[in-house]
Design a protein that fits this description.
Layout: E1 16-20, H1 49-61, E2 66-70, H2 80-87, E3 93-98, H3 103-113, E4 117-121, H4 127-134, H5 139-150, E5 158-164, H6 173-182, E6 185-191, H7 209-217, E7 222-224, E8 234-238, E9 244-248, E10 261-264, E11 269-271, E12 280-281, H8 283-287, H9 292-304, H10 324-327
Parallel strand pairs: 1-2, 1-10, 2-3, 3-4, 4-5, 5-6, 6-9
Antiparallel strand pairs: 7-8, 8-9, 10-11, 11-12
Helix pairs in contact: 2-3, 3-5
Length: about 325
């Protein structure tokens, strides 16, 4: 069935959905989660595979073509490759954001199930600093997983994401630039956003994309690539042709104007912006017997109210209660 496109109140057509399949994670990254004390959702309070499949199928009928599966850490969800196989036929592009810890085990199964693209989070290429940021001594295992994934041509492009934090990432910029030149990965620096569990974020902790780009450009000259519509990253190629590097600058250079994304949390809450203060429940109506037409109307009403922009840099900005791990990366 083909339904009319999903349009927000600012005239933007929604084409991308990011669904968290679990709030659980095997890392405790400083910018995302507390070291201890986080209460996980009950298993029966999380969307089932069939419920996720139903939502993705409905959203596909409404014109959504791109799906990203996130967490928490999605690979900790039992039988996750089976979910990917259920969803891949419904969309044009299915990508996965992962910390890479279980990629060595699951890469082949995920590629075979139909995953098109992967984003792997790595905040440092130095083992001790990786441990400092993630609170897990796991860098060698993550790098082995990345190497395992890279062996599959159909998994490319593979993106390596590093959160940029002042006082930490300055020393990572050039090592990551060399990494992007030596290996078949596009490294992307993501500005630190106010989505930390402790609500201690402040603007002075943000190492901007422009600062990192200037540091890299001074050693390895960069040339800008054209920005694709709805893209979150500003992508640059190295002038000598050896690789690419990207910068996602939601704080210093917001890209809200042509945002076409919505998010669904692990317990079935629709969020129209990463920084939304309000959510719309989809799981409750589904389990109460809502028809697809009922769900469509709930989704349309929520999307119509989608925020024009995130307002992080404006007076009176309020950080969402949920940390990044509970929203979905």
């Amino acid at each position: 069935m083909v339904r009319s496109p999903l349009i927000d109140g600012h005239g933007r057509q929604i084409g991308d959905v990011r669904i968290s399949v679990t709030d659980r994670c095997n890392f405790r990254c400083q910018y995302c989660m507390p070291a201890e004390g986080l209460t996980w959702l009950d298993r029966d309070g999380v969307l089932s595979f069939e419920e996720i499949q139903r939502l993705v199928g409905l959203l596909a009928e409404l014109g959504v073509r791109d799906l990203r599966l996130t967490g928490g850490e999605p690979l900790v969800r039992r039988d996750f490759p089976s979910l990917v196989a259920m969803l891949a036929p419904l969309v044009e592009d299915l990508s996965i954001t992962t910390n890479g810890f279980l990629l060595e085990r699951d890469a082949a199964a995920l590629v075979a199930a139909g995953a098109n693209r992967f984003n792997v989070s790595i905040d440092s290429l130095q083992r001790d600093r990786f441990f400092e940021m993630t609170r897990r001594d796991a860098l060698p295992r993550v790098l082995r997983g990345l190497e395992t994934l890279a062996a599959f041509p159909e998994a490319h492009p593979i993106k390596v994401n590093a959160v940029a934090m002042r006082g930490f990432t300055e020393d990572e910029a050039l090592p990551f630039a060399r990494f992007a030149r030596e290996f078949p990965y596009q490294v992307r620096f993501i500005e630190f956003m106010p989505l930390d569990a402790g609500h201690t974020w402040s603007p002075d902790q943000v190492l901007t994309g422009d600062e990192i780009r200037a540091a890299i450009h001074a050693v390895f000259p960069l040339e800008a690539e054209p920005r694709e519509p709805h893209a979150t990253a500003r992508v640059y190629r190295f002038a000598d042709g050896q690789g690419q590097i990207g910068f996602i600058n939601p704080v210093s250079e917001p890209f809200c104007g042509d945002c076409d994304r919505i998010r669904i949390t692990a317990e079935g809450k629709l969020r129209t912006c990463l920084f939304s203060l309000n959510e719309t429940d989809l799981l409750g109506p589904m389990r109460a017997g809502a028809t697809d037409d009922d769900l469509e109307q709930i989704i349309r009403d929520a999307v119509w109210r989608k925020e024009l922009k995130h307002r992080v840099n404006e007076p009176g900005f309020i950080q969402p209660d949920r940390p990044m791990s509970a929203i979905g990366g």
